[in-house]
Amino acid sequence: MVVESIVFGPIPSRRLGLSLGVNNVYNKYCSYSCVYCQAGRTTRLIIDRRSYYDPHKLVEVVVRGVEEKKPDVVSFVPNGEPTLDKNLGLEAKLIKERINVPLAIFTNASLIYREDVVEDLLLFDIVSVKIDTVNEKTWRKLNRPHPKLSLERILEGIIDFSKRYRGKLLTETMLVKNINISIEEYEGIADYLSNIRFDKAYIQAPIRPPAEKFVTIPDKDDFLIAYNIFTEKLGENRVEILNYPEQPLFKFSENLVEEVLKTINVHPIRLDYLKYIADKKDVDYEEILDKLLKTGKTMIVEYNGKKFIVPRRII
Question: Where is the Radical SAM core domain (predicted)?
């Protein structure tokens, strides 16, 4: 992958507004292989940090993207685990020296027990950490972590990080039917979160095509039960349900085919959203879709009653 292709969007974030995405690790290099991952199964399950792109070239591409597209936020949200990038801290420092929009990172927190990872994360204005469960058996079934990882160590690391971090700390809990759906699961997560200094806890649904076909969205009642337990223990103003899609307000350039190809590696796009984008740009939707499919890099999948364009490797 050339360095220019790592920046995508801006895409509409339900949490942060228009987000310019940074895909700072190679495709599907991750420490987890979550069953619900919208970027597909992990192909390189690793926990060792390494270099991926020249950090100075990466920064130039990000700065140019900010200048051209005026996002609300820049987010390190790759189709892998961003903290696997050992240049992460340097990249964050250099970017923050040159832009005046918040810098965010979305991490599964699997390496947060490492001091070098913590030091890197402390540089970000917004940090979002994944906490899908506090149960070891559920964690291994849902997140399918690298075998050398320890859930206890990760959970302790998040607590320690929250005590040192002075930015905006978010937590994400993805609910998947028949896996982490129970009062015991919700109470365990909420009790754990009560030990963390955080700003907002998001309860999410797998609304885009997942890595595994057995993944389905829980019933509405499950979200309400989880929400009630979370708010009782954490406070209503600190909990939000995200079980709805974002608006189709993607801020793409005129080269729509290239923009879509870069974006779907991380963020599958609904076909009705693609049509909306094409219509807004006064270009032919069918022609754009045909070009995308003829690249051989994409395919159409149906999930939860909606059709999406996704990378061919997702299945």
Answer: 10-245
32 and 144 Cβ atoms separated by less than 8 Å: yes
Quick one: average pLDDT of 29-57? 95
Helical ranges in 165-280 per DSSP H: 183-193, 220-234, 256-264, 271-280
What is the rounded distance in angstroms from the CA atom of residue 33 to the CA atom of residue 265?
15
Extents of the domains making up the chain: 3-251, 253-315
- Among candidate residues 156, 82, 70, 85, the one with its CA nearest the CA of residue 126: 82
Helices (H), 97-219: 115-121, 136-142, 151-164, 183-193
pLDDT of residue 22: 96
CATH class of 253-315: mainly alpha
Look up tokens 């909420």; give the residue. Answer: 190
Residue 3: the pLDDT is: 55
| Each residue's pLDDT tens digit, 154-173 | 999 999 999 999 999 999 99
Give burial (CB, 10 Å; 0-12/13-18/19+) of 285: middle
Which residues touch 1 (CB under 8 Å, ≥6 apart)?
Answer: 23, 26, 27
Percent of the chain with pLDDT over 90: 69
Q: Give exposure, 155-166, as e/b (b: 16+ Cβ within 10 Å).
A: bebbeebbeebe
Mean pLDDT, the chain, rounded, equals 92
| Structural domain 3-251, CATH architecture | Alpha-Beta Barrel (3.20)
3-state secondary structure of 49: coil
Q: What is the DSSP letter of 257?
A: H
- Categorise residue 201: left if φ over 0, alpha if ψ from -120 to 50, beta otherwise: beta
Q: How far apart are CA 20 and CA 239, in angstroms?
A: 25
Return the C-alpha torsion angle 227, 232, 233, 234, nearest 10: 70
Task: Give me Rg for the CA atoms of the chain.
Answer: 19
Largest distance between two CA atoms of the chain: 53
